[in-house]
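Quick question: what would this complex look like in 3D?
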Amino acid sequence: MKDRTRLALLAGAAAVIAGFYAAACPRLPGFGTPHHPYGDRAVAAALAHHTANVVSSINFDLRALDTLGEESILFVTVLASTLLLRLARDERKATPRTERALPTTRLFGTVLLPVALVVGVYVIAHGQLTPGGGFQGGVILATALHLAYLAADYRVLERVRPLAALDVTDALGAVSFTALGLVGLAAGGAFLENVLPFGAFNQITSGGMVPLFNAAVGVEVGSGLIVLLAHFLDQAVEIHEDDETPEDEA
Amino acid sequence: MTAALPFLAAGWVLLIALYGLVTSRNLIHAIGCLAVAQSSTYLMLLGVGYRRGATAPVYGDLEPGSRPVVDPVVQALTLTDIVVGATVTALLLALTIQLRKRHGTVDPQALTALKG
């Protein structure tokens, strides 16, 4: 298709989308309106279950089944990326070079790596009380580890990153979410039902199952993201193509 | 009309991203455009959930009932959206790496023939 035809098609389609969308917008509930029936009910439900962070309550209590699907997507993506980025027949692994970081960068990484890890654990553990939770804390944990790459080099990152163990941890995190869901079933409730005591409001033990789900997701996201980034970094740093057989792979 | 302005902004972001997707000559750039298209839905969702004079739906240091809060349901949806968007981006980037290895190009218009 020629560039001009493509643009003409887009212009036509965009005009239709823009027209219908603009016509639909004024009929949406007004911007900033005080009327939020679902929001109000969600807040009431979260407070009834002693969960201070309503967003966490929705994700890990009211709509826990959706979160199960969401973390399954995450797990499958890590699996698929591992499969796609594995070592091909015509590729070989080379030892990464030792790089020299600036002394200040090295100091920055050494000081901040443990701090970042603690912040990650804090964000996961307080997911039911303050903004945060398993997804956000897991990402902080995973990025914290990569400070080793920034402040030192790839070999140091490989030493602080036990990939084989993290692969298993990722799977265990995914499984434990389902296992926690089955606890509700075993206790005579429904799948993924919040059956634990709700605890005192605004305490770290409040929310019943919410902190446990948060922890499971935090472990899964943290290890999954490290594995995912490891495969991408391997492509850039370690894996080289063999020059002899460029067409052999097809 | 001004009341619908935030939603129209979301639509505008979507159209910009579609334009980028269609005219892109580089798959990495196209994946970036897809991420922009997805961020238009965040804008839309958060626009729907906004409530004037309200604060975050977190009662960590807020007396329940003392202030209105924005709609937490759409915020949870946005969180789901971000996680799924990030994973889709990762998968597409992995596919692009494979494509570059097999076909030696990341220009979608240079990919004409099927190849095993």
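Answer marked as accepted. The radius of gyration of chain A is 24 Å.
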